[in-house]
Task: structure prediction
Amino acid sequence: MKLYSANETAAIWGITVSLVRRYCREGKVINAVQTEQGWMIPEGTPKPGTDMIRETPQTKLVKKLLYQRERNQHFGLYEYMQVNLAYSSCRMASNRLTRDQVQEIYRTKRITPGFEPTKVDDVVEIMNHFIAMRYITDNITQPLTISMVKQIHYLLTYGTYADQNHKTGVGEFRMKPSTGRISFSPPLEIGKKLGNLIKDYERKDATLEQILDFHVYFERIHPFDDYNGRVGRILMMKECLRYGIDPFIIDDKRRGAYNRGIKQWDTNPEILTAAVLEAQKRFQGKMEVCRLMEYHRPPKD
Result:
């Protein structure tokens, strides 16, 4: 059986290559196979039509997330993703809210004070993170672009202390050189380097390894004055959902390995990969719990 690439299939069907890849990701192309070279389609495969759509685990997950989002359902995967990614990602950047407080903000837009004073900025950052995550769930299937990256940064930083005191360019690239122990890309090179990184990444459908590789080099470019890690972790979540890869959330337990893995990616990629696979198993466990809860839900009266 002869196999055609996405480019060859696009020419046969008279559509764009990106649409062929999208059909394959969504499970609409019968017997399509994903290889290291990209999607391969058997000879004679008909162009997808409305009567040939088959649902994949990836499309089921995305549909479930969007369904729960629009109905504001609690205790489901969408809330789990929103609350835990906001809590874990912002905590890496010294946000001091507890997970219970983050969940309370998500559900009620209120917060119960803890044992220490609550910083207004911590609350704003969490609210902004919810908004940024909603933005990426609106754009799961869209390719990465510089404007998308800037928009995520804008949503994360708008109204924060750094924004109001002009300590960071909201949705704008860094204009000052790095001054810490780690040397990041010079300001004048950020646009070109990030553009090339995205261009190379978008050449073919991504694997988990390629998503991690993109994340590492995004952090090394360090395009913004602040919030780079949070932007990068949101992008990883989006791309996992886009390509049907089980999502993951880096929590406190895996934070050290995550940071070491980024630093040692070139010489020892197993460190970051192992931390991510552990986090992925935890998310998979949550998906299974949610599935069982739905299966055993008592019938309505």
